[in-house]
Amino acid sequence: MTEHRSPDAKFRTSLLEENDGPATNLTDNRTMGEIITARFSRRCFLKGSLAVSAIAATVSPLALVSADQARAAEGSAFAFDELEAGIDDKHHVAPGYDADVLLRWGDPLFADSPEFDPTKQSAQAQAKQFGYNNDYVGYIAIDGSAEHGLLVVNHEYTNPHLMFPGIVKIVEKDGKKSAEIAPLSKEQVDVEMAAHGGTIVEIRKDGGKWQVVREGKLNRRITSNTEMALSGPVAGHDRVKTNADPSGTKVLGTVNNCAGGVTPWGTYVMAEENIHGYFSGELPEGHKEAANYKRLGIPEGAYEWAAHYDRFDLAKEPNEANRFGWIVEVDVNDPTSTPRKRTAMGRFKHEGAESIVAKDGRVVFYLGDDERFDYVYKFVTTGKFNPNDLAANKDLLDDGTLHVAKFAEDGSVEWLPIVFGQGPLTAENGFASQADVLIETRRAADLLGATKMDRPEDIQPNAVNGKVYVMLTNNSKRKADQVDAANPRAENAFGHIVEIAEDGGDFTAAKGKWEVLLKCGDPAVANVGATFSTATTANGWFGMPDNCAVDSAGRLWVATDGQGPKATGRTDGLWAVDTEGSARATSKLFFRVPIGAEMCGPLFAPDDQTAFVAVQHPGDGGEDWQPFGRPSYYEDLSTRWPDFKPDMPVRPAVVAITKQGGGKIAV
């Protein structure tokens, strides 16, 4: 009989992504909530749920009449009939559009890949198949084509209770059902490790529909066992040396790749986020990495990899965790190339790495640290992008300056350089080199006095209007004494979006201005304090902004993570958000995911005629998510999306959305 263990009636790998554990930032740096409160209290900001964003003209609730709604609607940059919000086991897209499943977990990627068989999984098969829990989606054109290119996709994490048959046992106590999950075998852990990482696959549009090219010469799977190189200031440092790698330059694999990016020179970057869940065991008593790891929540032990691989056991390999939490760059044009962990870009729980070429040719990357009370960063390369010699850009990410944001009440933001020897980043505070500063990026930012944010996730620079959009998903840990009527966000459940304008329109600038574009949540509930425009319908508002995209027209699209029956009464989805003119802060629902899923991606093809979205962890969630009052697991799922076959489990997948009859999305 298989011995089962109880994870407190919840599945631990699902909880890992929620980031709702004990706060790890114990500094007294000011939170973004406190700054917003102070700023807008001084300006007598309007009370109530219908006060619009401070960046727009303020409107009295008494003036919310149909004429205002009509003006906002007429000024919208988006033309489509809005989808109805709701919850069920399927995906839905706005009328007039098709949403076709392009790639599912387990789909073959190579000519010799085996077909997916959920009852006969193996690491060998998974390494040639599409991985699990697709998150970031990027597109790299082949020969400049918007209809033929490489799709690059991150595989963030795995949910064994949804992947493997026979490991969940349901017990009932006091009339309530809960789940117990058996320890995974080594073979199952190996499948998990092969399902992590990323996919590079050739795709082509044929007859208006996208197809996978299994014979693509550049197709590749990257996994938790792919050999990688540490590069930049940390490479070779004593703190990243292990028994298996005494050189401190070679790492096996990448984990928990959340959002990411595509560089101007056409490489694929993967952002390592919640690395703490992969490590177990205890450091030797008095070990010098204890405080460093505590600041990152290491070890959390959601995964069982340490039971089979010593490198994930801190007692046996105390430096291994320092080799994760980086930005990984992959040369997609050489499937035999070694991915490189670019340590100059800092070590923390990276949400993404979206970039833009500045006026002087340097490249700027915006980076969120996805944890409550952590920070917003940007990295500015020292070298300049050379569009005429792509090979000359290959090591741009090894030399540059990482900065952290400090937001002020007057609406200004300062980017503080994270450089050894400057300010408090000295030997007196335990830093002996830039390598130490980067390994402990969070502590360095603490000492610099950066602003504690409400879970920074995706950050997108907009080349059309010169602004930068910061997704702040939520912060359930904010205390009531940190808010007032102008910012009614105790236990900020719904998050908000900050818009930054860098000084002089220069993305490398040391200073800029900031405003709140949106406070999210239901505007019909007064104490939520949401600030959507009055033209936003009951279907158009959302909470928990997470990933986002800016299309070629400069329009903002926002994907959400964390909505559900109790939180919002709707599933996650993709919303079109106006940022300009009379329609500013108006939002419309375009696509929604099935029950239990998160909306990831999104990505627009270069011609804006396709929106690629990633439906992550469909069918997941604790009892609160399930409408049937019971857990969802392999044998008893809340949905069998996207196949809806009794012999197929639920499968994360990438969906391609196109307009019926062709043409640009939302035009």
TrEMBL record:
Q: Which PROSITE patterns match?
A: TAT
- Tell me the protein's name: dTDP-glucose 4,6-dehydratase
User: InterPro entries from the entry?
Assistant: PhoX (IPR008557), TAT_signal (IPR006311)
Which Pfam families does the UniProt entry name for this protein?
PhoX
At the top level, the lineage of the source is: Bacteria
